[in-house]
Amino acid sequence: MCVKMNLQESGEMYLETILILSHNSSFVRSIDVCEYMNYSKPSVSRAMKILKDGGYITIEKNGKINLTDSGRAVAEKIYERHSVLTSLLKDIGVSDEIAALDACKIEHVISNETFEKIKEKYKK
User: Fold this and answer.
1) According to the CATH classification, is domain 9-71 in 1.10.10.10?
2) Which of 19, 38, 54, 110 could make an SS bond with 5 (beta carbons 3.0 to 4.6 A apart)?
3) Euclidean distance between the first and the last CA atom of the chain, given in angstroms as a whole number
């Protein structure tokens, strides 16, 4: 995967949110991202500009946000990490809410090597 810029955790979260919203609707707009993340319109607008300039999303004239191939790759990677880590934490007895919150924190800092080993062990 060719990454055009280093994304911070917030950029990864925005891409993951766009991916999640696109699973429920074929038309994702900035306002949808605002509502889902409970962020202000100016914050989301700034983030969308950064993601667009970085080549992670495109925004059509009608406001529809689309993930580019590189944006989709990052979003799917983060979403997979979130899903696997949440399931693992729940399986060891962590409450649903805390498991989701902790997975959200871990998914951005864990190395690829460590995540792959966790996933390999967890799926056995």
Assistant:
1) yes
2) 54
3) 27
Rounded Cα distance between 111 and 40, Å, is 31
Residues of the chain with CATH 1.10.10.10: 9-71
**Main-chain dihedrals φ then ψ at residue 113, nearest 5 degrees:** -60, -50
Instruction: Please state, rounded to an integer, the average pLDDT across all residues of the chain.
Output: 90
For the domain spanning 75-122, the CATH number is 1.10.60.10
Nearest to 10 by CA among 67, 73, 78: 78
pLDDT tens profile 75-103: 999 999 999 999 999 999 999 999 999 99
- Alpha carbon distances (Å) from 119 to 9, 16, 93: 21, 19, 18
Would you list the DSSP string of 7-39? PPHHHHHHHHHHHHHHHH-S---HHHHHHHHT-
Q: Which SS3 state, helix, strand or coil, does residue 63 take?
A: coil
